[in-house]
Every structure is written in C-alpha cells, then in structure tokens.
Design goal:
alpha/beta, Rossmann fold, 9 helices, binds zinc ion
C-alpha cells in the first residue's frame, strides 16, 4: 500500500538508497528544543522517524521566539519539551514523541536510552562534553551543530572513526553574555543537521566525517574544512579515560 504521508520522499528509494522503513525503526535523541532543536525536530518528525526523544530543561521565554519556531507566544512560561511534543504530535501523530524535561549532565544513559543518533542542538560547551563522552563510550554518533549571529557550523561526529567534539573545542569557552542569533541561521543549520541524520539513518549519501562545514549567511560563503583528531584530546585521545 502506498504511504501517502511520505510519498514524496519514498520517490528517492530507488535511485538514492533512501529508506522509509529504516527511518520508521529509528530512535533519535534531540539535545535541546531551542533554535536548532526547532527545525531539527520539525523535519525529523515530518520525515517519520519512529521515536523522537526531545530533551530540554527550560521554559519558553519571549526572547526565545525570534528563532525557536516550535514555540509560540501563548505558551510562554510552559516547558519547551511539552510545547514541542504538542506541536510535533499535531504534525505527525503516527510517530512516538518522548519529551524529557531534564538537564543533560553526569551519565545521560537513562535520558538517551537506545537512541541511534544524537543531534547536538545545545547552546553551551559543557553539555556538549557530556554527550561527547557518552558518544565515545557507546559508539553513538552525534550530528554537531552550532550558530553565532549570521553564521553556523555542522559536523558528523562518530569516534573513533572521526574526531570528537572536544577535538574541535578543547577548552570551555569563556562566557560573555548571550550569543547573538538570526533565527533564519538556526533554520539553515538545523535543517542541515536533520538532513545529515536522515542520511545516516538510511545509509544513503555522504556524511561530514572529519569535516566541519561552515556556513556564513552574512557573505553567503560556505567552507568545508578537513578537521583532524587531536592525539592529545582528553576525551578521545590515546591517554583518555
Ligand atoms: Zn577528541
């Protein structure tokens, strides 16, 4: 029987190795339901990922709404996870949406469960280190994304085949107030992250392994930098652990 909901992507099965069935059997852990988490979770829900775990500890604030398009003015003060779950269930009631209002810290195994892939939609390096350590320990890949102003970046992280997040960011950045963001930049980078996850889960297309794709919306220049594992990395290097 033809599946009408996914008809336009099932058209890619014959020539591009796309697989609706594989998406339906997949679990994705989305770390953060903010600027990046919004487009990521919209597109992954729409694509028919079988189980989406969405994790965030925050409530919606007015200043989020220039970029966090999952949420709305009427839901200010409510948990981002509940807001996300309501919207995404409305978009696609055929998949399982699992909201988890929690901080990602310590050992995140119970939060991440058996997810096939983690999408890094975080806004701070300390929490990225937590999912990075989990990734190295369990072999669960991460689609890293980050944004600043008009620019953003994305990489496919899967140690030991690739470098880890800590190879890219060896030290926590010094805090200097809120990061400026145009909402559309989060839309671009988050959409790329969703696409990268879909390719990984279906085993189709080329992944950004050991590549850091930089997008600068101010000049519309893009660059794909080759990045290498740091042998002295405290997380994935030979002396780690
Ligand atoms: Zn590393």
């Amino acid at each position: 029987m033809m599946n009408e909901r996914y008809f336009r992507q099932i058209l890619l099965e014959e020539d591009f190795g796309f697989s609706q069935e594989k998406l339906g059997k997949s679990t994705v852990f989305i770390a953060g339901a903010g600027g990046l988490g919004s487009p990521v979770s919209y597109y992954l829900a729409a694509a028919g990922i079988g189980r989406l775990i969405i994790c965030d500890s925050d409530v919606i604030e007015l200043s989020n709404l220039n970029r966090q398009i999952l949420h709305s003015t009427g839901r200010i003060g409510t948990a981002k996870t509940e807001s996300a779950a309501g919207v995404l269930r409305g978009l696609n009631p055929e998949i399982e949406i699992i909201p988890k209002r929690a901080l990602i810290e310590g050992d995140p195994s119970e939060l991440i469960e058996d997810a096939d892939i983690i999408i890094d939609c975080l806004d701070n390096i300390e929490t990225r280190y937590v999912i990075n350590d989990y990734s190295i320990r369990t072999g669960t890949p991460i689609v890293h994304g980050g944004i600043n102003g008009y620019a953003g970046q994305i990489s496919f992280i899967n140690p030991p085949e690739t470098l880890c997040i800590r190879c890219i960011f060896p030290e926590p950045l010094r805090k200097s107030g809120p990061i400026p963001v145009i909402g559309a930049t989060a839309g671009v980078i988050g959409s790329m992250q969703a696409l990268e996850a879909i390719k990984y889960l279906t085993g189709s297309g080329e992944l950004l392994k050991n590549k850091l794709m930089i997008f600068d919306g101010y000049t519309f220049e893009t660059d794909s930098l080759t990045v290498e594992k740091n042998p002295g990395c405290p997380a994935c290097g030979s002396s780690a652990g």
